Amino acid sequence: MSKIRKLIPCIYLYDEKAVKGVSDKTVLFGDPLDLVSVYNEKGVNTIFLYDLSRGMGDEAHEKALDIVKAICKKADGNVIGAGNIKRMEDVKKLLYAGCTKVAINLSEQSEVESLSESSEKFGKEKLYAIFSDNVQTKANKELIEKYTTELIYFPDSINDLASSDIDFTISYVIDDYEKSLDEYKKAVTNENFELFALKGALLWDDLKKNSDGMVPVIVQDYKTDQVLMLAYMNEEAYNKTLETGKMTYFSRNRNELWIKGETSSHYQFVKALYADCDKDTLLASVKQIGAACHTGSYSCFFNEIAKTDYDKKNPQKVLNEVFDVIKDRKINPREGSYTNYLFDKGIDKILKKVGEEATEIVIAAKNPNDNEIVYEMSDFLYHMMVLMAEKNVSWEDITDELSRR
């Protein structure tokens, strides 16, 4: 394992607010979700979330977990949860709230004691270790290597880059949210520090250029796969995109480099970059801030030329459309609606139907004809969506959880 060094911005959560640090409870944001929005707009891929509710009682801890859940839902990238861990159950609560990983503080004995059980339950890839110095790291070296996959360190300054003799990835937690990520990157000269720069598998020379010496780039939304725009890159734009994580193009009209969003603040942050089979076209999967099109439209492709009647049968679209109807029935009841009948009868009736339909799937699976199981699975999914609407669970909640597994 190579010694990768990363920087991660932090949210310190105290009394339902985002504060400056562990020892400094100065309020930065009364609503921590506002700080998440700041990080989203900066293209942050990972947030370190530290719960400072230890010693404040169970009620404060439960409120903190509710905010953790909201933060995980709002954040564009991964969330690493930490703080107030007394037992394996607390690790589970953070993971169930939506955290991708959980960091165990090696300075807290109760957290160290929970390490082996948590690792056995959830897997070592779900656990990181917070360390303060090399002495502490060496003292816990066996535990770290056996039960965790990464080290977390809180530097006093950007120049305080602790080293470790354990061959692990180390993430440095940034306290100063106002300092731009680019400034941090420029401040670090350690050649082993792999910050927010993307490591391109292909060099510019590996790509096939058009007659102008450029490569076209198709840009799509990373969540929906909606095509947003088409632009071009020259060598400088390509390298700048990999360096900064912001989509950068070459304007053929203005004959100059063009950082998308530089004037409008409608930045595009790279989530993934692909080349086609001939390596003469790029596909960028991005987080789009605001609108991609100069007209204000989210996508540049909105001028319909021709269209036939067809059913896309996109699974996610079908599920979303059915779920939207179910949610609408809950808000706007219709007489004679079976969905409204279930809502009127309440949670016990809904659960009874979910259980019945699950049993029908088991019975149908024993039969040789596949048609029956498809029918029963469809029935189950419908009743499951009624339950989701009743409990205010969205498809995004489900897919987010599945993507973390």
Automatic annotation (TrEMBL):
Gene Ontology CC entries for this record: cytoplasm
Pathway entry: Amino-acid biosynthesis; L-histidine biosynthesis; L-histidine from 5-phospho-alpha-D-ribose 1-diphosphate: step 3/9; Amino-acid biosynthesis; L-histidine biosynthesis; L-histidine from 5-phospho-alpha-D-ribose 1-diphosphate: step 2/9
Catalysed transformations (reactions): 1-(5-phospho-beta-D-ribosyl)-ATP + H2O = 1-(5-phospho-beta-D-ribosyl)-5'-AMP + diphosphate + H(+); 1-(5-phospho-beta-D-ribosyl)-5'-AMP + H2O = 1-(5-phospho-beta-D-ribosyl)-5-[(5-phospho-beta-D-ribosylamino)methylideneamino]imidazole-4-carboxamide
InterPro entries registered for this protein in UniProt: Aldolase_TIM, His_biosynth, His_synth_HisIE, HisE, PRA-CH, PRib-ATP_PPHydrolase-like, PRib_AMP_CycHydrolase_dom, PRib_AMP_CycHydrolase_sf
Encoding gene (name): hisI
Top-level taxon of the source organism: Bacteria
Keyword vocabulary terms for this entry: Amino-acid biosynthesis, ATP-binding, Cytoplasm, Histidine biosynthesis, Hydrolase, Multifunctional enzyme, Nucleotide-binding
Keyword field contains Flavoprotein: no
First-listed, main subcellular location of the protein, grouped into a coarse class: cytoplasm
Recorded family membership: In the C-terminal section; belongs to the PRA-PH family.
Name of protein: Histidine biosynthesis bifunctional protein HisIE
Stretches the record annotates as Phosphoribosyl-ATP pyrophosphohydrolase: 319-405
PANTHER family referenced in this protein's UniProt entry, alphabetically: HISTIDINE BIOSYNTHESIS BIFUNCTIONAL PROTEIN (PTHR42945), HISTIDINE BIOSYNTHESIS BIFUNCTIONAL PROTEIN HISIE (PTHR42945:SF9)
UniProt domain Phosphoribosyl-AMP cyclohydrolase: residue ranges: 229-302
Ranges for region Phosphoribosyl-AMP cyclohydrolase: 1-318
Any Gene Ontology biological process: L-histidine biosynthetic process
Locations listed in the record: Cytoplasm
Broadest EC class assigned to this enzyme: hydrolase
GO molecular function: ATP binding; phosphoribosyl-AMP cyclohydrolase activity; phosphoribosyl-ATP diphosphatase activity
E.C. no: 3.5.4.19, 3.6.1.31
